[in-house]
Write a structure and sequence with these properties.
The chain is an alpha/beta fold. The protein has helices at about 1-10, 25-35, 65-80, 110-115, 130-140, 170-185, 215-220, 235-250; strands at about 55-60, 90, 100-105, 120-125, 165, 195-200, 210, 225-230.
Length: about 250
C-alpha cells in the first residue's frame, strides 16, 4: 500500500512495514518521531552537528569517584541504546580541549565551558539519576546539538506575499482555495491576501505554491525553488491547517 498512501498524502512520510506485529520495525519509527528525522514532500533533511563519540566525557573536580560512577552509568545507558562506546572520566582541568560533550556537576558548568568553549555542556544534579542520562542518550542518538559557539540552524524565512494558490486556469477553484487559505492565515494573526493564478502565470520568485495534487510536478517545474503543497480538496479545512501551521512556524 506504500504507493497508494503516497498518492493519498503526497507530503506525508510513509513507513511501509512487512509485519504489523514486528517490534523492530516500530522501533525505527519511534526513533524518528523522537528525533524529528523526516524528509517530507520537497523539504530537505535538516543538517545535524556531527558528534565524534570518542569526544564525549564525564568530568568532576578530581576526576575520580563520582565521575567514574557517572561515566560507567552513561556508558551503560548508551550501550543499551545500541551505541557501543566507553565514556572516559577526567578531572575538569584535564579534559581534552577538543572534547565535544562534557557531562559534569551543575556547580561546575561554568568551569567546563571555560575549559572547552566549543563543547556542549550537560550539567546534572545527581550522577546516579537515570532520567538525566536519558536526555543525554536521546541527544547523542539523534544528533541534537548546538555546541559551544555554534548557532542553531536558521529556518528559511518565508515572505507571506510570495505564497500563492494555483490551478490550471487560475479561476474558480483556485480563487476559492486562495480565499480559504487567506481566512485561515488571518485567523492566525497574519493579515495577508493569498493571490491565485493560472499555473503558467505564477511569478517565478514565488516561495510557496498551493495546488492540486495532479499539478505538483508542473508547479515544481514552474518554480524549482518553491515549496509545493499539493492538496486533494481545495475546500478541505484540515489541509489548510497544516499549511498555516508550517508557514507561521517557518
Amino acid at each position: 500500500l506504500k504507493e497508494r498512501a503516497a498518492d493519498r498524502c503526497p507530503n506525508a512520510k510513509i513507513y511501509p512495514i512487512s509485519n504489523f506485529m514486528a517490534s523492530a520495525e516500530y522501533d525505527q519509527i519511534v526513533d524518528d518521531v523522537r528525533c524529528g528525522n523526516f524528509e517530507t514532500g520537497n523539504s530537505a533533511p535538516a543538517k545535524k552537528t556531527a558528534i565524534d563519540l570518542s569526544k564525549v566525557v564525564f568530568a568532576c573536580d578530581a576526576g575520580m569517584g563520582s565521575s567514574a560512577m557517572g561515566a560507567a552509568n552513561l556508558t551503560k545507558k548508551l550501550k543499551n541504546a545500541g551505541i557501543d562506546i566507553n565514556v572516559p572520566h577526567y578531572a575538569l582541568n584535564e579534559v581534552p580541549l577538543d572534547t565535544q560533550i562534557i557531562v559534569t556537576q551543575t556547580s561546575l558548568k561554568e568551569r567546563a565551558a571555560d575549559r572547552c568553549p566549543n563543547a556542549k555542556i550537560y550539567p546534572i544534579s545527581n550522577f546516579m539519576a537515570s532520567a538525566e542520562y536519558d536526555q543525554i542518550v536521546d541527544d547523542v542518538r539523534c544528533g541534537n546539538f548546538e555546541t559551544g559557539n555554534s548557532a542553531p540552524a536558521k529556518k528559511t524565512a518565508i515572505d507571506l506575499s510570495k505564497v500563492v494558490f494555483a490551478c490550471d486556469a487560475g479561476m474558480g477553484s483556485s480563487a476559492m482555495g486562495a480565499a480559504s487559505l487567506s481566512r485561515k492565515l488571518k485567523s492566525a494573526g497574519h493579515d495577508v491576501n493569498v493571490p491565485h493564478y493560472a499555473l503558467n502565470e505564477v511569478p517565478l520568485d514565488t516561495q510557496i505554491i498551493v495546488t492540486q495534487t495532479s499539478l505538483k510536478e508542473r508547479a515544481a517545474d514552474r518554480c524549482p525553488n518553491a515549496k509545493i503543497y499539493p492538496i486533494s480538496n481545495f475546500m478541505a479545512s484540515a489541509e489548510y491547517d497544516q499549511i498555516v501551521s508550517e508557514l507561521i512556524g517557518a
